[in-house]
TrEMBL record:
Record-annotated SLH domain positions: 30-93, 94-157
Native source species: Pseudoflavonifractor capillosus ATCC 29799
Protein's name in the database: SLH domain-containing protein
The entry's keywords: Repeat, Signal
InterPro entries: SLH_dom
Signal peptide: 1-27
C-alpha cells in the first residue's frame, strides 16, 4: 500500500509541477520532437522521458516553455494530491481560513486543505499569494515525501533549518542533479522535468523508527532495491552502441534486449554524431533477482541520448591515423619522441567508421584523410586507447537557388538546388531550413539522410601567403582537401581586394568569393557643420559634419557631398553646393541619410517626404510620454522606433539612443525642457525621432536604505543643468559615502531612511525608518528582537544575509558576521526582507548603537 501511495504521489506530482495532463503509463502519442521549442530545453533527456512515459504533452500551442515557472497554487494542488490522491477539491472549499486572496482562485479547495492541515501558511496578514512561484526547496520537499521520506521526522517542517534539511537530503538522493537555481528560486518547467526524472531514477525508502524512553525517533531509512520509476512504470535503462544508420534509424548493437529478445535496432532516429557511440534508452520490463533486465515488454523511448563519450582527441588538418616514419611523417596514434601530432595509441582491433559506415580492414587502411576530414579518436571501453576511429568527409556545395518545399500525397517534399537534383522526401534531408541562393554548405550522407550545415566564413584582404596558406586578419588559413579547387575564386597574389573565404570544420578554405562594392545607406542626425580652410601651396578645404548615429554615438566626419552635390567653399556650379548654403540652421538637428565612399568620406542627404515617408517637427516645450503610442500627443511610435536624445546644455551634453516607446524617457512640458524635435514616419508610424532637451524626467529607482549622519551639513554643487544639488554625508550599502539630493527639504531627519533617486539623485523626501529597540538573540539562523520591527519580533537569516553595525555617535560602520553581534537591550535594529521571501528571511540587518 505504501508503494502504491508513492506511485500515485509521483505521477500526480509530475503533473502538477509541470501543469500538464497525465495520459497514462503507456507511450504517448507525441514525442519530444513534436515540442516546438525543444531546442531551448536544457534537460532534453528528462523532458524526452516525461513525454515518452505519457506524463506530459506540452502546452496547447505545442511548446514546452522550459523557462516558465510553477506557481504556489499549483504547489498546493500538488501537495493535496500527494496526501489525498485524485480528490475533488470542492469538498474543501467550505473550510474556514483567514486567507483573503484565494476565494476566487482555481485552486481554492487545495489551498484550504493544505492550510487547514498546517502544510502552508500565509504572510500573517491574510495573504497566500497563489500566483507566486513555487521554489526549488518546496518542490524538493514534496518529491522527497513521494520517495518515502518522513517530513516531520526529517525536520522538513517546524524547524528553523527546514530549508537546509530538505536541500541536503535532496542533494544526497540525487534529486538536484542538473537542476539550476538555489533553494529559494522559482522552479522552472525545465528544472521540474529534471527533478522528476531524477526522482524516477532514485530508489524509494522506508523510514525506520525506534523509541528512547517512550519517545519515538527516526533511526534510519531503509533503501529499497528498485527505483521509483521501475515501481511506477516498470522503467529500465539499457545501453547500446550505434553501429550505423539506415533510413535515418539507428542500427544498434545489441539489436535486441531482454530474455524475450525485444527488438530495439532500426526503430529510433539517429544523428551522425551518434555513430560509434554508446546511447541510452528505456524499456518497460521486469528485473531478475540480481537487478538485471529479464523480460522486456516494450520500448518506452522514442529518442536516443548519447551516454558519456570519451573522445581522446580530434584532428582536421589531414594527419593520418597510422603510418609514422621517424623524422619524415607524423601520425595521430604513434607515441614516439618527435611526433607532435600524437593524440593516443590505437587499441588492438579498433573499429573504423567513415560517414556512418563501418569499414573493413582493407578500406580502413586506405580511408580518405585530407585537410578538412574530421578524425575522432574515441575510447569506448575506457582503457586509455582509441578503439573507435570516426572519419567524416563532407562535400562542399553552393546553392543555385532558394530552398523550396511542397506537399505531395500528404508527404512534405523539399528541393535544395545545388544539393538535391529535384524534390525529395523532406525526411531524407536535414538542416535545409533557412538556406538561400549562393549559400555555401557542407553536406554528408549517412544512412540515406543528407545532413546539411552552412559553412562558416571569414571576410578580409589577404595580406600574406606562406607555404600555400593565406593570411587574413592576422590568421593563416590552409586550403581544404575536401575540394580540388578551393582557391579558384581568388586571383593570385591579390593583396588589395576583399574576399569571403568559406571554411570547412577544420577552418580550412573550401571556397573564395570576391566581395563586390555596394553602397550602404544609413540614417543619422546632423548636429553641426565645420570647415578647415586649406592654406599654402596645393591646400584644400576640409568640410566636416558632426553626426549622431543610431547607436547614440557621436562622431565628426569628413563630408564630401550634401544633397547629391559636391561641397565646395564657394563658386558652386550646378553639380556643387557652397559650404555656406549647407551650414545653416535649417540643416542642423535634422535626419540625413548617409553613405561612405571608398575614401571614407560621407555623402549626406536630408531625409525628405516621399509617398510613404513623412518628415515633421515637434514643437518646443512639448511633453514627451514614455511607454505611450502617441508619445508627443500627435505622432505614433512603436517598439521598433529609434529615439535619439540630446540631453543637457552648453558643455554638459549627453547623447543616448533608445529603441521602442517603452524605453524612451519622459520629458516634462514647459520652458527649459524640450527645445526641438524631428520625426521621420513611414506609413504613419515613427521610425526615427530626434529630441533636443535640457533634461528628462528620468527613471525613478526603487527605494533604497541609507543612514543620514547630519541633516544640517551638506555641500552645494552644480547639477550640470544650470541648477544646484546638495551632497550629504551618509552610510549607503555599508560604506560611509555621500548622497546627492535635489532639494534640502528632502532631508529632514538624521538616522536610517529610505530614499528614491532619479538619474542618481534623490528626487523626493526621504522617509524615516523607525528601528526596534533591543536585541535578544542572534543564533542558529534566527534573529529575535525584544520589541517588534514591522510587526514581527523574529526573523530568519542565512549565509546571504548582510549585517551592518552603525555607531550613531562616531558615524562609523562595519560589515560583520552574525556571530560577531552582541545582544543588547539598547541597540536599535531594522530588517530588510529578502526579495520574494515567504518565511521572513532577512536580506540586510542594521544594528545601530544610539548616540546617547
Amino acid at each position: 500500500m505504501r508503494n502504491l501511495k508513492r506511485v500515485l504521489s509521483l505521477a500526480l506530482a509530475s503533473v502538477m509541477l509541470l501543469g500538464m495532463m497525465v495520459i497514462g503509463a503507456g507511450a504517448a502519442d507525441k514525442t519530444a520532437a513534436d515540442l516546438t521549442d525543444m531546442d531551448k530545453v536544457t534537460n532534453k533527456e528528462a523532458v524526452s522521458v516525461m513525454v515518452d512515459l505519457g506524463i506530459i504533452e506540452g502546452k496547447p500551442d505545442g511548446s514546452f516553455a522550459p523557462t516558465e515557472g510553477v506557481d504556489r497554487a499549483t504547489m498546493a494542488k500538488l501537495i493535496t494530491y500527494v496526501l489525498m490522491g485524485d480528490v475533488d477539491a470542492a469538498i474543501f472549499e467550505g473550510t474556514s481560513t483567514d486567507l483573503t486572496d484565494i476565494n476566487t482562485n482555481w485552486a481554492e479547495g487545495y489551498i484550504k486543505y493544505c492550510y487547514a492541515n498546517g502544510i502552508i501558511s500565509g504572510d500573517g496578514q491574510g495573504h497566500f499569494f497563489p500566483t507566486q512561484g513555487v521554489t526549488v526547496v518546496q518542490a524538493a520537499k514534496m518529491l522527497l515525501v513521494a520517495l518515502g521520506y518522513d517530513a516531520e521526522a526529517s525536520k522538513y517542517q517546524n524547524n528553523s533549518m527546514w530549508s537546509v534539511n530538505i536541500m541536503k537530503d535532496a542533494q544526497v538522493a540525487g534529486l538536484l542533479n542538473g537542476v539550476e537555481g538555489s533553494a529559494n528560486d522559482t522552479l522552472t518547467r525545465d528544472g521540474a522535468a529534471q527533478m522528476i526524472f531524477n526522482t524516477l531514477n532514485a530508489k524509494t525508502v522506508t523510514p525506520k523508527f525506534q523509541y528512547d524512553m517512550g519517545v519515538q525517533y527516526l533511526s534510519e531509512y531503509v533503501v529499497s532495491s528498485t527505483t521509483l520509476g521501475y515501481q511506477t512504470y516498470g522503467m529500465v535503462k539499457v545501453t547500446a552502441t550505434v553501429t550505423g544508420i539506415e533510413n535515418g534509424k539507428a542500427v544498434l548493437s545489441p539489436a535486441t534486449v531482454g530474455t524475450n529478445n525485444l527488438a530495439i535496432s532500426k526503430t529510433l532516429t539517429a544523428t551522425p554524431d551518434m555513430v560509434g557511440n554508446v546511447v541510452s534508452l528505456y524499456v518497460k520490463g521486469t528485473l531478475d533477482t540480481n537487478g538485471k533486465l529479464a523480460k522486456a515488454e516494450k520500448l518506452i523511448s522514442t529518442s536516443l541520448v548519447i551516454s558519456s563519450t570519451n573522445v581522446l582527441g580530434t584532428s582536421t588538418d589531414g594527419t593520418k591515423v597510422t603510418g609514422y616514419v621517424a623524422n619524415t611523417t607524423n601520425d595521430l596514434t604513434t607515441n614516439k619522441s618527435g611526433n607532435k601530432k600524437y593524440i593516443a595509441e590505437l587499441d588492438e582491433g579498433a573499429t573504423y567508421f567513415e560517414n556512418g559506415t563501418k569499414l573493413d580492414d582493407v578500406n580502413a587502411a586506405n580511408a580518405k584523410i585530407v585537410a578538412g576530414t574530421v578524425v575522432e579518436l574515441i575510447d569506448a571501453n575506457n582503457n586509455g586507447k582509441a578503439d573507435l576511429v570516426k572519419l567524416t568527409n563532407k562535400a562542399v556545395k553552393t546553392l543555385t537557388n532558394n530552398v523550396k518545399t511542397k506537399t505531395e500525397d500528404d508527404v512534405l517534399m523539399v528541393s535544395v538546388p545545388g544539393v538535391t537534383s529535384d524534390y525529395v522526401d523532406a525526411k531524407t534531408v536535414s538542416g535545409y531550413e533557412g538556406l538561400v541562393k549562393n549559400d555555401v554548405v557542407l553536406t554528408v550522407e549517412i544512412g540515406g539522410v543528407t545532413y546539411i550545415e552552412k559553412a562558416t566564413s571569414v571576410e578580409g584582404v589577404v595580406t600574406g601567403i606562406k607555404n600555400d596558406t593565406y593570411k587574413v586578419d592576422g590568421v593563416y588559413y590552409a586550403k581544404s582537401g575536401l575540394v580540388s579547387n578551393a582557391m579558384e575564386g581568388y586571383t593570385a597574389n591579390d593583396f588589395k581586394n576583399t574576399y569571403t573565404f568559406y571554411l570547412d570544420n577544420g577552418n580550412n578554405i573550401v571556397k573564395a568569393v570576391k566581395v563586390t562594392e555596394e553602397t550602404v545607406t544609413k540614417t543619422a542626425v546632423v548636429l553641426d557643420y565645420g570647415k578647415i580652410s586649406g592654406s599654402g601651396i596645393g591646400g584644400t578645404n576640409v568640410f566636416q559634419a558632426q553626426l549622431l548615429f543610431e547607436d547614440g554615438t557621436v562622431e565628426i566626419v569628413e563630408m564630401s557631398k550634401f544633397g547629391g552635390k559636391t561641397v565646395v567653399a564657394s563658386g558652386a556650379d550646378q553639380n556643387e553646393v557652397n559650404y555656406d548654403t549647407v551650414n545653416v540652421a535649417g540643416n542642423e538637428g535634422v535626419f540625413v541619410d548617409y553613405s561612405v565612399d571608398k575614401n571614407g568620406k560621407y555623402e549626406l542627404t536630408k531625409v525628405a517626404d516621399t509617398d510613404d515617408i513623412k518628415v515633421t517637427t515637434i514643437a518646443a516645450e512639448t511633453a514627451i510620454k514614455s511607454n505611450t503610442a502617441k508619445f508627443d500627443g500627435t505622432h505614433v511610435a512603436n517598439a521598433n522606433t529609434i529615439f535619439l536624445v540630446k540631453k543637457g546644455t552648453g558643455s554638459n551634453v549627453t547623447y543616448t539612443a533608445y529603441k521602442g516607446i517603452a524605453n524612451v524617457p519622459a520629458i516634462a512640458a514647459g520652458e527649459g525642457n524640450l527645445a526641438s524635435g524631428q520625426v521621420v514616419s513611414k506609413n504613419g508610424v515613427a521610425t526615427y525621432v530626434y529630441l533636443d532637451t535640457a533634461k528628462v524626467s528620468g527613471d525613478v529607482a526603487a527605494a533604497k536604505y541609507a543612514y543620514i549622519l547630519n541633516k544640517d551639513a551638506y555641500e552645494v554643487v552644480s547639477d550640470g543643468n544650470n541648477g544646484l544639488d546638495y551632497v550629504y554625508s551618509a552610510i549607503v550599502d555599508g560604506v560611509k559615502t555621500t548622497l546627492t539630493v535635489d532639494k534640502t527639504e528632502y532631508v529632514g531627519t538624521n538616522g536610517l531612511v529610505t530614499y528614491v533617486t532619479t538619474d542618481g539623485v534623490v528626487s523626493e523626501a526621504v522617509k524615516a525608518v523607525t528601528p526596534a529597540t533591543g536585541l535578544e538573540s542572534v543564533s542558529g539562523g534566527t534573529l529575535v528582537l525584544k520589541n517588534a520591527f514591522a510587526g514581527k519580533t523574529a526573523y530568519l537569516y542565512n549565509d546571504d544575509t548582510v549585517f551592518y553595525t552603525i555607531n550613531a555617535k562616531t558615524g562609523s560602520v562595519e560589515t560583520v558576521n552574525a556571530s560577531d553581534i552582541e545582544t543588547s537591550a539598547t541597540v536599535q535594529v531594522a530588517v530588510v526582507l529578502a526579495k520574494g521571501t515567504t518565511n521572513d528571511t532577512a536580506s540586510v540587518v542594521f544594528v545601530i548603537t544610539p548616540a546617547v
